[in-house]
């Protein structure tokens, strides 16, 4: 991983964070004040409906839509479930009208409500606290078995020594950045997490259902907690107020990161200066140009994302096989960057240009896996299928960039295409014939988009005149600029 710079553009309505590595934007994070996600938030919920058939319940947590609680995410009397397949049925564990302390584990996406768990976890800088558990887990990214055991013993000793009840210390998961933490840092984190949990419990006993008991950190604070690492060279923020708040937050929780914090006070907006605005615009287009002259076409659908690789104008290599191989290699890097930049999740199908040589295929796969290894979000890659496609999955963590910034086109309703003017003309002619069989007005008036009216007056005038003669009624035309190319009205006069 190269040198990393983090740029934060803050405004009261929206926070935008860009992670730049070696001059190229690798990740974009956007949080809107009115649309802030709920993942990590703890609510006092009220069960509104139990569905035994789905082993789920709907819980009102004060949001627009009821949230969804599955039996596997329920904390039973015996504690958290660890791959236990013999769970008591949900109807024996919860009932309508019951109040529960619940945490959002997945934001509402599309028409689906948020997903909940009663197994609350609170994230700190180096530890995640599991108040209903006594288990100590360790991030898989922390190296040797010996180091893992040492860390586990240290956290257990610190948690036991500071617990009000030594028999009930709570559980902890050590995050990757706990690897080099001192006992003081770990102890501070344990104290902060327990204090937070105590506050949540106090609020749960005194507040009505539907209350937010605990909110996860804002995006600006999460930058310090989650995005900063050893490769981070600087964190630049363009708001003095946020800079001071972040400095105070960092002094308490992330003292090592505070030294990298800089206030940007230049004349030009920070995102303009580093070309981030253009990068966002490119991240919303279907086509991504490659340096070699090739390009990617990215299409996001409800079920999956498809990425098509094309050679375009690239003819740089000695022969056609090498041209294809070099384009595919470059595409593997560009593709993994686009997944991060656009935050594309779920199933991804990549259609690389067909390669005849097995070693070329394996080299492209190896490059793809190497590039995806830099991704903070978990991805899995299958090999080439019989049709020469590469299937992969990327964990869905939040809405994609396109879903966050865009909406379906009101003209084509998200299809990406509209009927031709001629097709609409023929729809109109059929509709007039249909209505002439049912009604007997003096005249039919067609109100439509100007391009459709133009075609009816010009290329389709013979068919229009023929229909008018056949039904024995005049047909008049009126152009309406506000109508989209597919809209029309037939008025009976």
How many helix segments? 13
Q: What is the CATH level 1 assignment of the largest domain?
A: Alpha Beta
CATH architecture verdict of the largest domain: 3-Layer(aba) Sandwich
Q: Average pLDDT across residues?
A: 86
Question: How large, in whole angstroms, is the Cα Rg?
Answer: 29 Å
By helix and strand content, what is the structural category? Answer: alpha+beta
Q: How is the CATH topology of the largest domain named?
A: Aminopeptidase
Poorly predicted runs: none
Distance between the termini: 72 Å
Q: How many runs of DSSP E, i.e. beta strands?
A: 24
Tally of domains:
4
Describe the main β-sheet briefly: 6 strands, mixed
Strand order of the largest sheet: 16-17-18-19-21-20
Helix content range: 25-40%
Q: Which percent band covers the strand fraction?
A: 25-35%
What would you say this structure looks like, in words?
With 493 residues, the protein is of the alpha+beta class. It is built from 13 helices and 24 strands. Strand 2 and strand 3 form a beta hairpin. The protein starts with a strand and ends with a strand.
């Amino acid at each position: 991983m190269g040198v990393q710079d983090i740029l934060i553009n803050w405004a009261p309505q929206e926070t935008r964070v860009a992670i730049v590595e070696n001059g190229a934007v690798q990740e974009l994070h956007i949080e809107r004040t009115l649309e802030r996600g709920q993942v990590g938030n703890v609510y006092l919920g009220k069960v509104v409906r139990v569905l035994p058939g789905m082993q789920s319940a709907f819980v009102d947590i004060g949001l627009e839509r009821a949230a969804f609680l599955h039996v596997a995410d329920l904390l039973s009397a015996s504690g958290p479930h660890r791959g236990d397949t013999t769970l008591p049925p949900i109807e024996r564990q919860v009932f309508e009208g019951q109040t529960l302390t619940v945490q959002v584990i997945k934001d509402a996406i599309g028409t689906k409500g948020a997903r909940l768990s009663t197994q609350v976890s609170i994230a700190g800088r180096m530890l995640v606290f599991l108040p209903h558990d006594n288990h100590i887990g360790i991030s898989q990214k922390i190296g040797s078995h010996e180091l893992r055991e040492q860390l586990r013993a240290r956290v257990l000793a610190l948690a036991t020594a500071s617990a009000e009840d030594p028999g009930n210390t709570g559980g902890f998961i050590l995050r990757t950045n706990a690897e080099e933490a001192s006992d003081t840092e770990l102890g501070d984190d344990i104290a902060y997490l327990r204090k937070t949990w105590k506050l949540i419990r106090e609020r749960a006993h005194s507040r009505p259902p539907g209350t937010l008991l605990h909110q996860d950190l804002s995006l600006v604070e999460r930058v310090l907690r989650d995005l900063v690492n050893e490769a981070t060279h600087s964190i630049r923020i363009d708001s003095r107020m946020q800079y001071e708040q972040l400095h105070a937050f960092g002094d308490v929780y992330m003292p090592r990161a505070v030294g990298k914090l800089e206030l940007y006070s230049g004349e030009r907006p920070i995102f303009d200066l580093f070309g981030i605005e253009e990068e966002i615009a490119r991240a919303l287009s279907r086509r991504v140009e490659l340096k070699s002259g090739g390009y990617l076409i990215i299409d996001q659908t409800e079920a999956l994302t498809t990425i098509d690789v094309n050679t375009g104008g690239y003819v740089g290599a000695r022969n056609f096989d090498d041209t294809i191989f070099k384009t595919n290699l470059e595409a593997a890097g560009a593709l993994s960057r686009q997944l991060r930049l656009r935050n594309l999740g779920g199933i991804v199908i990549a259609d690389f240009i067909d390669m005849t040589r097995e070693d070329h295929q394996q080299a492209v796969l190896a490059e793809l896996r190497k590039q995806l290894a830099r991704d903070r979000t978990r991805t899995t890659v299958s090999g080439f299928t019989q049709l020469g496609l590469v299937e992969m999955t990327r964990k869905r963590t939040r809405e994609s960039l396109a879903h966050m910034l865009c909406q379906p086109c009101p003209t084509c309703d998200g299809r990406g295409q509209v009927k031709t003017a001629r097709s609409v003309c023929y729809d109109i002619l059929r509709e007039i014939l249909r209505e002439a069989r049912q009604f007997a007005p003096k005249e039919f008036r067609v109100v439509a988009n100007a391009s459709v009216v133009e075609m009816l007056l010009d290329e389709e005038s013979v068919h229009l005149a023929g229909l008018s003669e056949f039904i024995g009624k005049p047909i008049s035309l009126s152009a309406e600029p506000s109508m989209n190319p597919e809209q029309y009205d037939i008025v009976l006069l």
